[in-house]
Specification:
Elements (H helix, E strand, L loop, with lengths): L14 H17 L17 H19 L3 H30 L5 H35 L8 H37 L9 H26 L1
Helix pairs in contact: 3-4, 3-5, 3-6, 4-5, 5-6
Length: about 220
Amino acid sequence: MFRRLGQRSYRSESPTYINSNISSTLQSMQSSPRDNSSVSFRSEAPTTPSTRSSVSNQSQMLIDHEKQIDRDGANSMLYFICNKLSVIVVLVDELCTDALGLRVSAYELIDELRTKVRPYLVNLDLDMKRFEDILRYNIDRSNIADEKIKWLIDANTYQKEMRRVLTELADSVYNDLEESLDLRQKGVIARRPSPATVENLSEMKKGMERAIKMVRNSSRG
């Protein structure tokens, strides 16, 4: 056994010594009286139905407050969604143009379609659902004579049109692009996006340009 640094003598740390030391420590702990004065118990009041009801009401009030929207807020959300939809329409149109040619590999294009376009469409769908929920909440709680009912209905009309574009983009357009690229990847070189998809994307681009201008003008009015 090596001598400990800084000590002139050392004790043998054998199992016998360790066990005897532990035993003596346990005996001293058992023989000493236990002091219960330091032990305290926190009494927690039971949750009553009235308490749960109060918490539920507060949560509902918070949700109601978050869903209330004014005209500027509605226009901001509308422009945000409109801009995001325009971005993805342009991206899919560019991808479709590449799919019509043979300059970019089908593997690269289908990877971009599935890893970039699809998640973007899913996130945009969630944004639209939140906005639609807010619009519906405010419309349902408005009277026909309220001043805000007009711009709420206008915003809802714009949103319905953008929902239609997103649905078509995520359904027929996406499926046609994915199918054509998948077949090209398998060796069917002649497969291209359908003329209907190409024309549809062209009209979507023009429509989104008009929509952004209309939303901008609406926010200024």
